[in-house]
Amino acid sequence: MRYFYKRKDSDFYSARLLESPAVWTWLSLGTSLTAFFLVSQGFPKELVKIGLVALAVFLGLVLGQTYLYWRYLGSVKHWLSYWANLGLVWSLQTSLLNARTTGAVASHSYRVLPRIWVYREKEKLFFKIQKIPGSFEEDLDDLSELVGSTLGDRWEVVGKSLDPSAVWFELVFGLVNQHLRFTPKSVGEISQPAYTLKLMNGVNVDLTSLPHVAIFGLTGSRKTSTLLAFIAEVLPTSDVYFLDGKNEFSVLSSFIPADHFASSEEGILILLEKLIKIMKKRAEIVNQEVKKRGVMGLTAKKVGLKPIFLVVDEYASVKSSFKKPKELDSLMLQCLMQFRAYGIYVLYASKSPNSAVLPVQMREQFGTYILLGTANDDTQRMTFGEVATTGTVPIGSGFYLTKTAQMPTPQRFEVPDFYKHHLNGIDALKALYKMGHKDDNINKILEKG
After folding, report:
1. Cβ atoms of residues 313 and 245 within 8 Å
2. Are residues 243 and 146 in the same domain?
3. Residues 153 and 269 in one domain
4. Burial class (CB in 10 A: 0-12, 13-18, 19+), 79
5. C-alpha span between 182 and 175 (Å, rounded)
6. C-alpha–C-alpha distance, residues 151 and 14, integer Å
7. 167 and 204: one domain?
8. What is the pLDDT of residues 63-120, one digit of tens each?
9. How far is it, in rounded angstroms, from Cα 24 to Cα 145?
10. Which one, 11, 151, 228, 368, has least CB within 10 Å?
11. In a domain, 13, yes or no
């Protein structure tokens, strides 16, 4: 443990120089060398005794520090890593001091800070932080958040525990999984097969078995970036409609037909009625194919119908335009439950999964849930039915859950990065749209009604 003392007339704390083992180590070595040098220059030989005592102190301190390094760091490689990351140790000490200099405790004349050991192996940082008197195992979550905020967005907590001796908090931080992030280099890499949505590298969702996607995240969590990425992926193979309460997607009407957008109450009702009409016609086509082929269980995909997506952005804003919002909820629930059988899917984005905005019955219809950024326990439970993490989540990251037996708990999600190779503009979306909308077959006829 280290003691930091409050400066006079200030809320800042600093360590006393003479309480540092390093100072005494170098001081004893300097004293010993100076004494031996003076004797060699003709000074009294009695100085040799002082030199020997100082040398003994130096060796004792070195042996003591070596034992500590060996006990808590192990290999010489970890020792070198610790010295290389001393700046991080000092930054963390500063964070701990700042975290303890608020409120009533600010009048205390000193602070006791834990001993901190840290080393890096490949893409992970390992911390051993001393459990000082007055701290409890429950403080582990707060400590991991503090370390996370000190490290920044590039690192995330991947492990935390109290060691068996109950003397040390052990934390492991890993680099954010950049290899999972979908970062296309060209427009051609964005386009995905029909009825497929790419969440991340190696993670694809088959919409025929997992219909509808819900994205939640507060302002700044890159929710819109995620929604736009998914829209870009399906543009070449699908028809996309927008319930746009804030009228933010109207810019896409320069190449997507204007009747695919709705923001007012009247426009939203007309659009939903149109989609229900398309759904009924698709149902007729599927039933005809069932009779023709003599095969049960045919889907829109098997029949060859183009998928259709309904983008619902900020449902709270959409509902605010309705005099009777419960009627909209009822209509949307009908769409969520019936659309999926005929290749029509909903991409939903909102700040919160709160039932005041998204009723529970509607929320349960989604096959995939994504929660971006740091969220409290209640928000995580509303989204996933459980708490995914008690720590902070870097910007551009979050968690996702699909309704499959293979994924019983939420997994890490990385927001697609279309910015790196300049694929986030209107031109890229226009090019994607034109890739698959030259001549449509039966889908054109269906939409014209």
Report:
1. yes
2. no
3. no
4. middle
5. 16
6. 22
7. no
8. 988 888 888 888 889 989 999 998 998 888 888 877 754 443 444 676 778 889 999 9
9. 34
10. 11
11. no
